[in-house]
Amino acid sequence: MTEMMSGMDNTDDPTRAAGLGGLDEQLIDQLVDRAKAGGLQLTGEGGLLAALTKRVLESALEGEITDHLGYQAHDPAGRGSGNSRNGVRSKTVLTEVGPVELDVPRDRNGSFEPRIVAKRQKRLSGVDEMVISLAAKGLTTGEVQAHLAEVYGAQVSRQTISTITDKVIEGMVEWQNRPLDAVYPVVFIDAIHVKIRDGQVANRPIYVALAVTCEGNRDILGLWAGDGGEGAKYWLHVLTELKNRGVADVLMMVCDGLSGLPEAIASVWPATVTQTCVVHLLRNSFRYAGRQHFDAIAKALRPVYTAPTEAAAAERFAEFTEAWGTRYPAIVRLWERAWAEFVPFLAFDPEIRRVVCSTNAIESVNARIRRAVRARGHFPNEQAALKCVYMAVMSLDPTGIGRKRWMMRWKPALNAFDIAFDGRLAAGKK
């Protein structure tokens, strides 16, 4: 409705000069009385809001044709002007309050091009935004179609809904190739798996990179669809692309301990500290243990990852090895292989430890993506999957409350980062 009002001409009609507040009060009273007396519905075809929307749009269209012709209706100044009004044509447009039938004015020369409801336009932009928002929340095209029919009385085909959501692809390409900051304090990387039907339905990874900016904001750097299983080779491609888009330095990279990933990170940014997610390390440990020992193993490993120093962690791990190494040697080997990427966070202050010891920062994003993906089951192709994930990412934190909470959480850590990394963070702000 805001867009409708901004497109209206305020100069010629005093009822339009004040926007909605300038509408004929008697008309509004009549509509309200009808609603009370006859049970007039609020939305949908023939509803109260539809009637008001019709009045606003037709007033705006009348103002547009007045501007186009240069004179008011029935004004003698228009005689001999070479063009004049030529009645109206009816068309139905889908709005945020349901279908609305409009009388669109015409001119004899056929040169009038309305802006607020353009020729051949069947939907107002607010409807497209609503459809995209519903799709981003995980609704399928069929569910969006049913929602529009039930709530707004509008019959919209599935193909139309797909066409509307396809509009985001252009923005997605631009977003995916945008320049990035020169330095990021922390980048979290992870992959989620979606089902894509390419000949046959198969699990395919969608790679996600989430960064913390020098100002403490959350910035999702991009989305990439891989082929086959998650692998360090494809992560090398992703990280190289980030570097080519302007990322010259990353202080810490937090990941899930995938084999070969630390080497891939070091080949792109040699000075970057790679931190393995402690939660993933614990989760992988339980794969080698009997369920009856889960609680005991968790209790025995806790002193290792909560140790005040790396040396203390090594001592606690030796105690764990002595107690459980004979029964579960695979867990010991798992931690030994990951030790070099596990211990870096132990060298930092508690403010940094809390935010880099796991990939929880990106897991919340992944959870939102999974909800949207799960509703669709599988996708016909890679682009459809990326479009769904992109819309889910763009719909994160619509109120901005999460952003404020994120910045408050990261501010103490960023102050400690600047000291711990010898001014590399400050250099990135210049």
UniProtKB/TrEMBL annotation:
Keywords: DNA recombination, DNA-binding, Transposable element, Transposition. InterPro entries: Transposase_mutator. The keyword DNA-binding applies. Residues 71-90 are annotated as: Disordered. It comes from the Bacteria. One of its GO terms (biological process) is DNA transposition. One of its GO terms (molecular function) is transposase activity. Required for the transposition of the insertion element. Belongs to the transposase mutator family. PANTHER family: MUTATOR FAMILY TRANSPOSASE (PTHR33217:SF8), TRANSPOSASE FOR INSERTION SEQUENCE ELEMENT IS1081 (PTHR33217). This is Mutator family transposase. It comes from Actinocatenispora sera.
